Amino acid sequence: MTTNPPGASPGSPLDDDTDARIDALARSAGSELRRPAPEHGLAGVQRAMRNRQVVRGAAGASAVLALVVGGFIVANNRDGDADLVPADPVSTTVEPDTNTVPTPTVAPTPGVTVPEPPSTAPREVPPADAPSVVYTSSESVQGDSIEMLVDPADGAVLSSRPVDPALSLGAQTELSIHGRTNADLGDVTYAFREVGFDSGTLATDIFPDVDLCAQNTVTVTSPNGSALPQRAVNLVVSPDDRSVATLSATCPEPGTMGADGMGTQLPFEWVLQVFDAQRPELPGRTLATIPSIEAFGRLTFSRDGRFIAADTIAGGGAVGYRFFDVDAGSEVDLGLDLTGCRAVGTRYATFARFIGPWIGDSSIALDIECDGRSTTLLVRDLMAPGSDFTTVAPTTVDPLSVIVEVDAAGYSTPGDSWFTICDIVGPTCWIGHGDDRLVELPAVTTASFLPLGYSPGN
Amino acid sequence: MDATLLPDHQRSDMATDDITTDFTVPFEEFYRAEYPGLVAVATALVGSPESGEDLVQDTMVKSLMRWQSVQRLERPGGWAHRVLLNACTSWWRRRRTEAKYFGLIRRSEAIVDGPSPDALAFWESVRRLPERHRMVLVLHYAGDRSVSEVASILSVPEGTVRSDLTRARAVLATELGA
Asked: Could you tell me which residue, B96 or A133, shows the higher pLDDT?
């Protein structure tokens, strides 16, 4: 454990004493919660495990029966850590047929949730740009889960199979182009490296990389030099290799903090700059200057390289985005009143993900969560004012329990978006296409246009 | 199972390992070593020591059921923390929904020999933080996990953990009037 508050830096609006007090309070409050393992706790764990093995056995026996009838078994316990007994995904593939929607067979064992069959609504002819399949699960997806592939037009289960984390990761990786921090553009390369923090007492020659503003090292190789800051809290290279943006600050020199180990923390300013990625020797253009109290997360580019989104956590803890127009050199005003709301990205944007709010070339997809109101999905093309598509989640569950996603592969215009909305508490998911009626997927917790199985951190 | 926590040559084992009780001695060590941190994390996140213990118990059962694979991880405790975080998230979401319709969330749990009022107030404030700040703070201070361990558990860079901690403390200072 560290002895000084981790991250103590001018990035915090706190003075040292206050930060140290909060750190001490946190350590004390944490220690009060830690309790030794109960004397007989291990025996209870072993007993519970045996009980669950019995449940597994019952589910396995039912699987044999289910195989005979060509169905599949999903045995899902109360907290989503499911025991799943898949049938052979090849032999049990079910052709989509509105008259023969497969019905999951469920082991009648204690603590097992019975998933409902998918919607049997009359099938419609899917639009030409319809995604071929939506990947769903009735549990909290882990590496050993089963995913059901459903028809987006009517929710019919087409097949089921164990998730493939490698396949899932590969499908998601393609999206990471929005948040590229390292790039090889031929004569010019960009590298962004995380470094540690300055403790305030360590000599610069011992830890030359540390930075008082929590910035990381920017390395540019170029035949004509570089005008980029050598340190930045964020850097992103546009998908079209045209621009590179940095969010950086002029910080006190490393190793110059006060003798108390943390020094005096002074407010400073973040500067958002954009540079010509092919000619990094040219001076950058400043898009915004932002007080340090407004903390920023990732920077992401729209696919066409025209816009930048900056995750922002304002002083009050609100979460949202600020958008900047690279060509115009100014901030984009969305014209939305988001008072009392969180405007976050969709499934692959939240919490350690990488896509930002982007969809298509220059469109944004925002999950807008406002107190006391249902989650709203907004899709807008920033290059086509007035193009908004909005839809309200058909659930009154807490917005934090709602996850939305827009199909990136088939996206063309906001009004033609394919999307999923999942109420993970219900649980129920819906598949939607523009203003068409929603296809309901009862007892489904996850519905994605990408294969399931890889989930970094959440 | 997040495959990134598992050495390459062992990743395929996770789905096929038999459940066994042949590892009770190392599991017991794991149990006794990890329990204090896990129960603190769960209590901090859900606000109820009793529910926290239930969630840790459940996490331990899952760990034992997969022990043959889990024990080979570089950080079995990190895996357990991930399982627990997911369980806490699910628990909280269920409670929110129950509260919405049935008013079941009690403002305070009856606690005997539990944390002090100051600690309870602190963690109450923590639970109002944005998700990642909350997770980072709880893992670091309640779970007593180092910055690098928190980064590994949440699959984010260490620098992100440090900056999250800084920002979370700043919000808490305002919230708590420090």
From this structure: A133
